[in-house]
Specification:
This protein is an alpha+beta fold. It is built from six helices and eight strands. It has a domain of 122 residues: endopeptidase fold (from Nostoc punctiforme) (Alpha-Beta Complex), CATH 3.90.1720.10. The strands form two sheets. A six-stranded antiparallel sheet has the order 3-8-4-5-6-7.
Length: 290
């Protein structure tokens, strides 16, 4: 039997082919060339970066100038706003001052007009009062003259027969005339409780004022006034006598007899100060101070 000799595999590494070695050498050479080129180009790039970095301060200066310009513009705008606000405040103050001055002027004119009207009213009232006083004094003088003429021309018998009614025609003289004239001058004035003049009265306030201007002091209230002087009969009254209503020590109303069967008194708030006949409100009694 023939034995075939089988090839024994070798444990040595196979030899690489020349083609593969050449290919690998070419690739390696290309890589090295690329590295060399990159290395040669690196200084130029660094120089470019350095040059670009050196030019940056120029941009920073420009930014500073812009910032300064913006700040100056903002300050100018703020100053202008402040000036406008100040001008507005000044204008508002001027308008307010003008308005206040106009209001004050109107108020002053109103007060002046009111004062003129009040003065005119007071003057008119004073003139009217003076006119009434003059007329009443003239009336009293005329009455006195008539009474004296009638008395001198009458006989003794006629005088005796008229003695009982002499109080109704007797005219006031002296102090009594002054009291009567004052009382009549107040006719038309208002009645006010507690009033003592000059344009409003209560009953005892008027009596007290009439006697005071004649130099005679009387108490303030009616009950005390009716206790002064001497009690007289209502049939024997004389001008200037004080009439009272109620009891003498507790009278609630007083008036002044003015002659001719009449009295003047501050009656009440409805009538005011009036001149009335004794028949209008007959008194309880009378006292004579003079």
């Amino acid at each position: 039997m023939s034995h075939t000799t089988a090839p024994i595999p070798s444990h040595r590494k196979p030899r690489r082919s020349t083609t593969k070695l050449s290919l690998r050498a070419g690739v390696a050479g290309g890589v090295l060339s690329t590295i060399a080129v990159a290395g040669a180009a690196t200084p130029a790039s660094a120089e470019s970066v350095t040059e670009a970095t050196l030019e940056m301060p120029t941009l920073g200066a420009l930014d500073t100038d812009i910032a300064s310009a913006v700040s100056a513009s903002a300050e100018a705008n703020q100053q202008e706003a402040l000036d406008q606000d100040l001008a507005a405040q000044e204008d508002a103050a001027l308008q307010k001052a003008a308005k206040d001055a106009k209001k004050a002027k109107a108020e002053a004119e109103r007060k002046a007009q009111a004062e003129r009207a009040e003065k005119a009213r007071a003057d008119a009232e004073a003139k009217a009062r003076a006119s009434r006083d003059a007329q009443r004094v003239q009336l009293a003088q005329t009455t006195s003259y008539s009474a004296s003429g009638s008395s001198s021309s009458s006989s003794t018998g006629a005088s005796a027969s008229s003695g009982s009614s002499s109080s109704s025609s007797q005219a006031a003289t002296g102090t009594a005339a002054s009291i009567v004239a004052f009382a009549r001058a107040q006719v038309g004035d208002a009645y006010v409780p507690g009033g003592t003049g000059p344009n409003s009265w209560d009953c005892s306030g008027l009596v007290q004022a009439a006697y005071r201007q004649a130099g005679i002091d009387l108490p303030r209230v009616s009950s005390a006034q009716s206790m002064k002087g001497t009690a007289v009969s209502l049939s024997n009254l004389q001008p200037g006598d004080i009439l009272y209503w109620g009891g003498r020590s507790s009278s609630y109303h007083v008036a002044i007899y003015v002659g001719g069967g009449k009295f003047v008194g501050a009656q009440n708030s409805s009538t005011g100060t009036v001149e009335r006949s004794l028949d209008y409100d007959p008194p309880s009694g009378a006292v004579r101070i003079l």
